Amino acid sequence: MLRDTIKWRQSVTIGGVTGVRNIILSKPRWDLLSMNRKIIPATPFLCYTKQGFPVYSLRLGKGDGSLATAAPDECHIYCSIVRGEHLVNKIFPEAQKLHETKLSRRGPTSSLDQTSALTRHENEPYTDADLDVIDKQVVIVDLDGISMSALRCLYVFKLINSVASCNYPELSKAIYVLNSPTVFDYIWSAIKPLLAAHTRNKVRIFQMGPEQYGALQEILEDDDIPDYLTPQVDEENVKGRVGCVPDADEPDFRPEGVRDLDAWLENSSEALDKTCPFP
């Protein structure tokens, strides 16, 4: 597995640039990132869970499915590489530093009682060692608006999944699939065989309702739960975090987590014309 990963990282090519390191050092492909954000509205970093794990949030039902199938393969591969490298080299180190600071103040066992909220193998309890290193993320996938047409994007999912499997395995602590519609049973039946068993075991699927919101409250502070996943009351102030994920209809809008990724990519590049063009 390690040998395959090293080989892939050395041989993957984007726009004539070969190797993951060289791809990150080269001129950023802002065109591919812009296209990808219309396909998969997402924020690389939403917040931290109560246990200290970074959260990656996606709104798959709000993306442009027709553009997904029309986009070149290198769009999906490049954006997966950038996202993975940013996660490993920026998000995880910051999460680890914050986690160690909190542990030094509260003691090493203070957050053990909260870990049960995250998906894990049955009868496999957490220990102090599980909390020593923050090297995984929690993924929140909102399916509101998704339909059977998503099956047209199955090839895209296979491509993205292959990049993750080759280069960034075992980076998810738990995967929360939310606002699951009835048709998702058919979509899941097509996707499930593509996932490794250890990944499938981390997936929790919810339909909208109090159970879904309660599951989010177990792992996130109320103010960190996105507003579109928070029950709202008419004529009251909006609850939850507003504007935390890009909108396919507003491609120029960049939440804080997206701006942070763009800044990291620009700073990592050695190209002269690397400046981010997004407002």
The share of residues in helices is: 40-55%
The count of helical stretches stands at: 10
Structural class by sheet pairing and helices: alpha/beta
Distance between the termini: 41 Å
The dominant shape is globular
What is the mean pLDDT? 86
Low-pLDDT runs of 5+ residues are 110-115, 119-130
Give structural notes.
With 279 residues, the protein is an alpha/beta fold. The chain is built from ten helices and seven strands. It has helices spanning 2-11, 20-25, 30-39, 65-70, 73-106, 154-167, 184-191, 197-200, 210-219, 256-268; strands spanning 13-14, 17-18, 42-43, 55-59, 137-142, 172-178, 203-205. A five-stranded mixed sheet has the order 3-4-5-6-7. Strand 5, helix 6 (154-167) and strand 6 (172-178) form a beta-alpha-beta unit. Helix 3 (30-39) crosses helix 5. It is globular, with a radius of gyration of 19 Å.
Quick take:
The protein has about 280 residues and is an alpha/beta fold. It is about 40% helix and about 10% strand.
List keywords for this structure.
279 residues, alpha/beta, 41% helix, 10% strand
Q: How does the SSE layout of this entry go?
A:
Layout: H1 2-11, E1 13-14, E2 17-18, H2 20-25, H3 30-39, E3 42-43, E4 55-59, H4 65-70, H5 73-106, E5 137-142, H6 154-167, E6 172-178, H7 184-191, H8 197-200, E7 203-205, H9 210-219, H10 256-268
Parallel strand pairs: 4-5, 5-6, 6-7
Antiparallel strand pairs: 1-2, 3-4
